[in-house]
Q: What sequence folds into this?
């Protein structure tokens, strides 16, 4: 990421990295996580560690160190390390020693804690003025996926501490910004600053692997000044706010109020960050709240984002830049796949059918959402056309696109066809698990899919690679209900999957977290929508 960003900054590699890092934060908030450094005694344990913690969290910790030390000092330390140990063997401590020498910072102590401890901190940040000295008060605690539930005794305790290299950004009324730095080694500390500033953001350029929690007043100031944050900070602010709502650190209104300013957002990566939380709110919360509330919620999404599609139109001109093309595809996905706006879905269905006849019809970035929306409403004829397109696809990407389209239809008959297809060689082995994942994520096919998996498990299991079985298990919380949770637990106890043992524990935890989320947030969603007089009628 670092090298490509330096070579091709227009590719915005750190924006891409932010999406991966956000997923790692979500996983590491669970009870059932693990440290970056993990002892392995069996091959199955090694396979389980090919995950977001080992790779994305590992990379994030290095980025956090570099951001705190400064790019030049970090580079100087790496060069010293390479020169000193050229053509020799090393251990991690040798790198930390070189970085410490270059920066005069206790890098080994910082890095050791982050690598050997599981989890990460929630930083509560607020302005502080003591004895006439301005600054920020920082308080850390372990971020828990459910703030109301104590951590299990065998996991890292909730009061664990990390030596956290904190870098915040202070924005001024003149339009400039400056950073504040502090190494937080205790449960709390003060970072002194010069000048108050207009507002601040608690994780400059989203380089820190922690979640900043601002006071309600500071959170409101960030919403009001949202366009002034950098793209990475806007992405982070959306991600952190939603995570804090899910965990119970913040009310749902904190996120919904933030979405209300999204109609002004044009960066595709920021819009993409809104997508997943809105999808969860629709399928997990609004669906549970009843059809009237769900219609209100979907209409609010249309009111928020619909203007962007009307502005962009479906086809741009030849001079259109890449960001605009990607932005259109995300807006279509939000309006068509989540909000189910008829004005969007009707056009997407028509374009999807025409695209099968003419593969030059659509701009490349628009193909995936159009195909998925069209596939959701497919009849037998269109389903057959998708099968033909899958078999005749020129590239692996094209074949996979049409394969996954077969998991989208809402027709029970077509779901049954896809399930049977998954047992045949028509579906490559490496794609079998992800096809079942898509079927479990489909609201209309998830129950049928789970029944099928139980009945046909011997044949299914033969088609799943050891690493991909964990991906299938990770998708089971889409079944939502406590009854299905008990069934999943009992089934994999009777049919053990050694490479999916941790994934099963994580799935059980997510079942419980989602149940708690629905119980806590459904009333908040109803109240928020009603207070804004969002009508349930179709738009």
A:
């Amino acid at each position: 990421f670092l090298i490509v960003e330096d070579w091709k900054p227009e590719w915005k590699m750190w924006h891409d990295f932010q999406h991966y890092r956000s997923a790692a934060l979500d996983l590491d908030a669970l009870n059932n996580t693990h440290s970056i450094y993990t002892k392995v005694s069996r091959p199955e344990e090694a396979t389980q560690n090919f995950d977001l913690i080992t790779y994305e969290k590992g990379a994030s910790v290095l980025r956090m160190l570099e951001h705190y030390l400064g790019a030049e000092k970090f580079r100087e330390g790496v060069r010293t390390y390479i020169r000193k140990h050229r053509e020799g063997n090393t251990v991690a401590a040798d790198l930390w020693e070189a970085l410490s020498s270059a920066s005069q910072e206790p890098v080994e102590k910082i890095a050791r804690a982050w690598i050997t401890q599981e989890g990460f901190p929630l930083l509560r940040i607020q302005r502080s003025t003591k004895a006439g000295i301005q600054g920020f008060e920082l308080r850390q605690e372990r971020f828990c996926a459910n703030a109301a539930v104590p951590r299990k005794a065998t996991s890292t305790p909730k009061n664990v501490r990390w030596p956290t290299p904190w870098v915040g950004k202070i924005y001024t009324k003149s339009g400039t910004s400056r950073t504040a730095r502090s190494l937080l080694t205790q449960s709390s500390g003060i970072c002194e600053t010069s000048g108050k500033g207009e507002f601040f953001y608690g994780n400059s350029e989203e380089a820190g692997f922690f979640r900043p929690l601002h006071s309600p007043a500071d959170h409101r100031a960030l919403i009001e000044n949202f366009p002034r944050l950098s793209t990475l900070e806007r992405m982070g602010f959306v991600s952190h706010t939603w995570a804090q709502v899910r965990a119970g650190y913040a009310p749902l209104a904190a996120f919904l109020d933030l979405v209300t300013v999204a109609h002004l957002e044009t960066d595709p990566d920021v819009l993409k960050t809104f997508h997943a939380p809105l999808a969860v709110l629709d399928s997990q919360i609004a669906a549970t709240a009843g059809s009237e509330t769900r219609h209100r919620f979907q209409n609010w999404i249309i009111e928020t984002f619909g203007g962007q599609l009307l502005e962009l139109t479906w086809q741009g001109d030849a001079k259109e830049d890449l960001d605009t093309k990607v932005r259109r595809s995300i807006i279509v996905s939000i309006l068509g796949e989540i909000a189910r706006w008829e004005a969007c879905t009707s056009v997407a269905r028509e374009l999807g059918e025409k695209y099968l006849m003419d593969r030059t019809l659509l701009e490349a970035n628009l193909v995936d959402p159009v195909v998925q929306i069209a596939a959701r409403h497919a009849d037998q004829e269109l389903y057959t056309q998708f099968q033909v397109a899958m078999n005749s696809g020129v590239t692996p990407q094209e074949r996979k696109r049409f394969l996954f389209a077969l998991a989208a239809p809402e027709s029970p008959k077509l779901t049954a066809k896809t399930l049977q297809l998954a047992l045949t060689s028509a579906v490559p082995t490496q794609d079998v698990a992800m096809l079942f994942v898509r079927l479990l994520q489909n609201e209309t096919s998830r129950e049928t899919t789970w029944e099928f998996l139980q009945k046909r498990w011997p044949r299914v299991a033969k088609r799943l690679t050891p690493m991909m079985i964990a991906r299938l298990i990770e998708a089971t919380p889409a079944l939502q209900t406590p009854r299905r949770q008990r069934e999943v637990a009992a089934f994999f106890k009777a049919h053990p999957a050694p490479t999916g043992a941790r994934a099963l524990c994580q799935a059980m935890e997510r079942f419980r977290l989602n149940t708690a989320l629905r119980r806590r947030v459904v009333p908040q969603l109803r109240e928020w929508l009603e207070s804004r007089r969002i009508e349930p009628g179709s738009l």
User: Anything to note?
Assistant: The first helix runs from residue 2 to 7. The mean pLDDT is 94. The chain is about 60% helix and 10% strand. Residues 3 and 9 are 10 Å apart (CA to CA).
